[in-house]
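Worked example 2:
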Amino acid sequence: MPTALKTKSPGKDRRSFLKDTGAFLMLTGAAAVSWEFVASGAPQEAPNYRTSDHWWGMLVDIEKCIGCGNCVRACKTENDVPIDEPGCFRTWVERYEVNPLEAEHPRVDSPNGGYDGFAAIDRPGEGVKVFFVPKICNHCVNSPCVQVCPVGATFDSPDGVVLVDKSRCLGCRYCVQACPYGCRYIDPRTHTVDKCTLCYHRLTKGLTTACCEACPTGARQLVDLKNPKDPVHEFLRTHKVHVLKPQMATGSKVYYHGLDGAVR
């Protein structure tokens, strides 16, 4: 799980600012109840979060992603992910160039995981389709990583998030090898596995993930599949969505709208 946030006693000015801000925000659900605790600098004391009331996932709209890298930068900052170590990403963005004459062999690049965005492509070619694909842990219902962990360090939370207990992790890499999506890495500082947690420390306080919050186009949306009022249900009824590598039958809870068949 992510390193615990260090909380300092907020000054009077900060408390007043947050409380005044709350008066002008339209907050619903857990966020509304939690706001008083967030404003007072003690979000961990919010009383209203019950794991049995939620089943978390994410919706990604490929057509809205512009490859700006905001999500990757926000994730690394929020979750203390190493910046200068290669391969250390809880989320990353890939750019696909799909030539209709060679659709089975797309060109894929992800410089530094998309952290710095992408350089423009000079004349990609007639008919070539260019798009971006954000990727994270898929928080599967039938997670291969959970099944192979020899000590139970990787586990499913009651609200559908795949988490890691780093105090138990051996760093054996079994889960890294088992994940069909390449969503795990070994933190070189702790020699334990790390991955996306859907910013669990935030969502349990009624907040969205750092990547969703930072996305300027709304390409990513945290969804609560157990909440009948969540807009995701209407979206799933009216739009076609896909998951990555459906043949793996992992029960992925990251749904993609506009996913090209060339994406792997």
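Residues 12-48 form one domain. Helices lie at 12-22, 29-39, 70-79, 144-148, 174-178, 200-203, 210-214, 232-238.
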